[in-house]
Structures are given as structure tokens and as C-alpha cells.
């Protein structure tokens, strides 16, 4: 797999970085990129550590190997149950607990370290804004309603012990991450390549997306930036409607995409998840990321898809 290219910065010295969720789509790409640029990575693993760099933890049981967190420069927290499943009562508990309990454990632990990290970058999602129609949203927008919005609010609140201890905390409010090897796009590609793709529901719902490479580079830029703190929307600067996304993907693949998946079919297949994910409208801008000086490598959907 291609390693995202991090822009060189002379002032960015070698760091020791602990990462949870390091085997996921985003986490594994971040590990490869940071490792390739000379940083020491300490992955958090849910088993006994097998190497001197691994950090064993059990978010459900509330335990973590504190000694191996001492002296790290930063922690990136990306752990969380996949939301792409039917939301039964058990699934919703796992989705919430995997984010909130793990984040709370990390935040409490980091706050008690004698050698605290300088930064704690913790996952979140644009789902915090809820279904907002055509409203343009940025980091100053109020949270919305619904299950995902509630999870994201609790997820971000769980970092409080770290910020109270003086650690720089950043909430990575991530949109749809585009990669051909995982996530939503990887699931769409086989269908679209067969010419069987199409818009979902009305197609009017806004999709806030970001290329995997830009997500990794933006995360790295926030790691480097000692003045960065609080919520940052990790989305591209040009959100599109589902209908436009469908047209653009079909054009890039040179395939037709004339079909429509009606709302009732999505609700039947996916249940509650449909209304809060594929049918939800979130027109989100990366205002704070742009104000920080970050320049997107793939600012348009077509450029991201062709890459």
C-alpha cells in the first residue's frame, strides 16, 4: 500500500507517539507514514505486548500498561467499533463504549503520568452535527441530535481529564475517508464498476469527505502545531451532495450510474443506521484546519477519486 507523503518540516523533531486503533484504515496508514519519517510508534494492543514498543490495554476492563506510556510525546486515539452494522441494542452499546470508555481510560491515565505527553489527539466524527440539511457547518456549530451525535459528544467529553491536566487535546472530527482499500469507498467500488451504482434516497444529502492522504497529513500537521487545540473538522474543503458524488465516481470509473436506491429499501436493509449515516446530510467545512494554514493535496472530489 502507498505510504502517504508527509510534507517535510525542519522544525518537526523525532517524536515518540502512542497510537490506539493502529490496525484500522486510518491508524495503519498513520503508523506507516510516521514510521517512514523516523518517528517511534508505540501501538496500543488489546492483548499481552509482544514487542518492547507495544502497550497492552483493556478499555472494557479499565486497565493499561502505564509504564510504557511514560515519556511519550503524543498519543493519537483512533480506537472504536465499526459503525457499519445493524444497530441492535448490543451494537449501540459496543459503538459507544469502545469510544467513550477507551478515551476516558486514556485521558485519566495520561493525566496521572509523571512525564505527560504534550498532545492527545482523539477521534471524533462529523456525526456530532447530526442531520442538518443544507446548513453549512463548521467547528463553531452546535452539536445535533441522534445516536451518533450523542456518542460523539460523550466521546469528546471523555478527554476532559487530559485537558484539565494541561495536555493539549485535539478532537479529530472526521468525515467520510476515501480509500480504495477500506471504508465506504471500498464497498462502493465493486458495485459502481459493474455499472450498478446510483444515488441513495433523494441524493440531496450532503457528504463531507476527505482523502486518506489528506487525513494523515492533516493529523500530522496538528501533531506538529503546538498551538492547535480543540475541535478540528477533518473533511475536504468541497463537500458534495450524494447525487454529485455518484456522478463523479461514475465518471471517474467510466461507468453508468443511473440507478436509485430508495429510502425505504435502505431503511429496510440498514435500520436506524441508514437515517444517521447514508441518508444524513452534513455540509461541513474544515474552517479551523484552513485557518491553521493547511493546504489540501486533493481538494476536489474528482482529484481524490482519481488518486
Oligomer: single chain
Strand order of the largest sheet: 4-3-2-1-5-6-8-13
| Structural category | alpha/beta
The count of DSSP E runs of length 2 or more, i.e. the number of strands, is 16
Helix content: 25-40%
Order of helices and strands: EHEEEEHEEHHEEHEEEHEEHEHHEHH
Q: What does the main sheet amount to?
A: 8 strands, mixed
Distance between the termini: 13 Å
Description of the molecule:
The protein has about 300 residues and is α/β, with parallel strands linked by helices. It has a domain at about 15-180 and about 210-235 and about 285-300: NAD(P)-binding Rossmann-like Domain (Rossmann fold, 3-Layer(aba) Sandwich), CATH 3.40.50.720. It is about 35% helix and about 20% strand. The chain has helices at about 25-35, 90-110, 145-155, 160-165, 185-195, 210-225, 240-255, 265-270, 270-275, 285-290, 300-305; strands at about 15-20, 40-45, 55-60, 65, 75, 120-125, 135, 170-175, 175-180, 200, 205, 210, 230-235, 240, 260, 285. Strands 4-3-2-1-5-6-8-13 form an 8-stranded mixed beta sheet, sandwiched between helices. Strand 1, helix 1 and strand 2 form a beta-alpha-beta unit. Helix 1 packs across helix 6 (about 210-225) and helix 2 (about 90-110) runs parallel beside helix 3 (about 145-155). The longest helix is centred in the N-terminal third of the chain and has 24 residues, at about 90-110. The radius of gyration is 19 Å and the shape is globular. It starts with 15 loop residues before the first strand and ends with a helix. The mean pLDDT is about 95.
